[in-house]
Structure formats: C-alpha cells, structure tokens
C-alpha cells in the first residue's frame, strides 16, 4: 500500500489542531449556561484525559464524511468533538484498576494515577455526559431531528449493544466470569462492539450532518465498519511489534492475560492480509462518491499503516 500523502497528513494535523482548540474551549473552567459551577479538580483531570494527545482520528472522520456531502463548519467540528469526548471517557474507565489497570496513556500517567481512582471515575462520567450535551446543543445543528439522530446514534454505538457491551465481552475473554475460549467469530464480535462501533459512528455522524440519503448513508456506514475492523487488527499487530515507548501505553496486555486476538488466530501474515482486504472493502464502499472521497480512502490506509 502507498504511504499517506503529505496533503493527507497535513489535513489530519490541521483537523487535530482545530479539534484540540475546540476541546479546550469546551473544557474551560467557566461554567456554561445552566451549570452551577465547574469544580477545579474535576476540570483539570478532564483536561488531562482529553487534551494534549492523540491524532483525533474520530473527529477527523466526522469532519471529512460531512465535508464529502457538502457540510462544513461548526456542526461537524462539534459532533467530532463529542465523539472524541466519549472516546476519552472510555479510555479513562478502561485504564481503571478494575478494568485494564494501566499506568500509562499517550505517554503520560493515566488519570487514576495522576489524580486518584474516584476522580477518574467522575472524569469519565463527566466526559460522557458532556459529549451528549454537545450533540444536543442547537449550536451543533439547528434541526432538532438531526440532533436527535446524532444523540441516538452515539448512545447506541457507545452503550450496551456497542462499546460498553464490548468491554464486558473483553473482560469475559480474560476469564473473569468463567472459562474463556474465544474463536474467530467471538473475537470479531468483541472488536466490532468495543472499538468498531464508535469508529463507525464517527463516519455516520458526518453522513447525518450532511443530510445523506439512505443509500449514501449506508455506504458510509459500511466504510466505517471496514475501517473500524482494520483499525483493531492493525492495533493488535502494533501491540506485538511496537514498544511501549513508541505507543505511549503498555503493550502485550492481551498475551499476558491469555486473551486471543486475530493475530493469534490468523497469524501475523494472515492479520496483515486481513488488513489489506479491509482496506479494499472500505474503498469499494466509497465508489459512489468518486474522487471526492479520496481523503476517506487515505484515512483507512493511514489506519493500517500507522506505526504509533
């Protein structure tokens, strides 16, 4: 596969800077209308969790999917920030001692290490609710039906039938609730829910804001699903090949816990072949959009090729 073009990496970096600035504004100490106060410790810990790291892939996908359909400006940016806030909440809770018990995230101490476990739980709660507040705000879109669609989509992607349910399957895969034997179908289901659902919604949110018709929206959902699956397989490969210093987080966790991944089930070369097939699938789903979808095509290649 060809490496990412300079134009793509510049576009991704520019979007990351814009998202970072918007997140900083959303996480300011100043209380918003209707709020009573924003406790200083909570806000500092929320900023620790959400600012200063990451490529902001999820908001980038929202922004680019919306742009493909002619929607730009504050709406896609805010929706992308909402998805990123939700994602950051999931990382904070995933790192807790009762979950993965990690000390490092994006090269920095995890929230429960930098602050404490109780604060980390509250940070996750606050980031999650802020995500839905941002989507429900008329500043994201003046049409209440669009805002409702966004809220519903994020709730389903992040809830019991998506990310949260996937996290429970992930804990089960560690043998916490009895013997855990995972076949290929089990691993694919877990990954589709825990990681893939939010990535898919990141793309679908752009389709919603761009007023996509049902066929175009379905094509973008299929693209998001292929990208989400490719992301997880590539992540499993990186977990085996990259160092903790390069990734900014502990590696080899699944092996330590005896938890199967597609790398285990397919082998390293099989996993790489799977990535290539998923890239092809993602590209095929964008055929209807022509050259206008080239940035999204590069995005899925970037997901597979990334080194950190």
Automatic annotation (TrEMBL):
GO terms for cellular component: cytoplasm. Keywords: Isoprene biosynthesis, Magnesium, Metal-binding, Transferase. GO terms for biological process: terpenoid biosynthetic process. Its cofactor is Mg(2+). Signal peptide: none annotated. The keyword Membrane does not apply. Gene3D superfamilies: Farnesyl Diphosphate Synthase. Belongs to the FPP/GGPP synthase family. PANTHER family: FARNESYL DIPHOSPHATE SYNTHASE. This is Probable farnesyl diphosphate synthase. It comes from Microvirga lupini.
């Amino acid at each position: 596969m060809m490496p990412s073009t300079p134009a793509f990496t510049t576009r991704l970096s520019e979007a990351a800077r814009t998202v970072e600035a918007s997140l900083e504004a959303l996480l300011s100490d100043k209380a918003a209308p209707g709020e009573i106060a924003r406790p200083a410790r909570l806000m500092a810990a929320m900023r620790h969790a959400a600012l200063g790291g990451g490529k902001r892939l999820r908001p980038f996908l929202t922004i680019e999917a919306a742009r493909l359909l002619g929607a730009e400006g504050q709406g896609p940016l805010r929706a992308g920030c909402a998805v990123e806030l939700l994602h950051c909440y999931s990382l904070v809770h995933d790192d807790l001692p009762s979950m993965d018990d990690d000390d490092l995230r994006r090269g920095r101490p995890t929230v429960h290490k930098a602050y404490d476990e109780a604060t980390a739980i509250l940070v996750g709660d606050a980031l999650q609710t802020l995500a839905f507040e941002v989507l429900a705000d008329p500043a994201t879109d003046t049409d209440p039906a669009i805002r409702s669609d966004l809220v519903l989509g994020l709730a389903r992607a992040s809830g019991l039938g998506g990310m949260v349910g996937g996290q429970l399957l992930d804990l089960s895969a560690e043998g916490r609730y009895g013997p855990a034997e995972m076949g290929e179908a089990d691993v694919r289901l877990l990954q589709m829910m825990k990681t893939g659902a939010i990535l898919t919604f990141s793309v679908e949110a752009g389709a919603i804001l761009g007023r996509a018709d049902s066929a175009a929206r379905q094509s973008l959902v299929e693209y998001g699903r292929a990208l989400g699956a490719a992301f997880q397989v590539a992540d499993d490969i990186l977990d085996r090949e990259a160092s903790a210093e390069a990734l900014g987080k502990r590696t080899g966790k699944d092996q330590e816990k005896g938890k199967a991944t597609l790398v285990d089930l397919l082998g390293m070369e099989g996993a790489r072949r799977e990535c290539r097939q998923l890239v092809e699938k993602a590209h095929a789903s964008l055929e209807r959009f022509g050259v206008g979808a080239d940035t999204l095509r590069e995005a899925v290649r970037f997901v597979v090729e990334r080194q950190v």
